[in-house]
Write a structure and sequence with these properties.
Distance between the termini: 39 Å
Strand order of the largest sheet: 1-5-3-4-2
Structural class: alpha+beta
Order of helices and strands: HEEHEEEH
Number of strands: 5
Strand content: 15-25%
Radius of gyration: 17 Å
Largest sheet: 5 strands, antiparallel
Shape: elongated
Length: about 140
């Protein structure tokens, strides 16, 4: 069986430059999260690494979702998808550029204050730090 990289090389368009370097940003993958909407294509791949390779080499791809049930890779043109991250078992998503460094400053947090209107989505999280992590890539 060919590796993900070998399969990717076989489908990469000959008139474009492919990035065949090793995948090093798997730590950006968020398990159990879907980035719905803003899809620019999808294909069946062997694993998350092959999905990342396709996104790297697809113009306008800035995020992806990998569905485990059928190994379908969704290439996405908007960080976090069109509607923002949603909890979805069996889906693993990532923004191609991410910052997983620890949250160092929650000084702006205002307990008991609601900022009504203009909500772009909601997600149940464990604490303020997880909220920040899940929403910091939405731009």
């Amino acid at each position: 069986m060919r590796s993900s990289l070998q399969r990717h090389r076989a489908v990469c368009c000959p008139n474009m430059e492919c990035d065949n370097s090793p995948v090093e940003n798997l730590n950006c993958l968020r398990e159990g999260i879907n980035f719905p909407g803003a899809e620019i294509g999808n294909l069946v791949v062997a694993d998350e690494e092959e999905c990342i390779l396709h996104c790297r080499d697809t113009e306008l791809c800035v995020a992806l979702t990998f569905r485990e049930s059928d190994n379908r890779c969704y290439l996405i043109s908007k960080r976090g998808g069109l509607y923002g991250p949603t909890i979805a078992a069996g889906h693993n998503s990532m923004n191609m550029e991410c910052d997983n460094s620890p949250v160092k400053n929650l000084n702006c947090l205002r307990e008991g204050i609601n900022f009504p209107g203009a909500h772009i989505g909601n997600l149940v999280v464990a604490d303020e730090e997880e909220c920040w992590t899940n929403n910091s890539g939405r731009a």
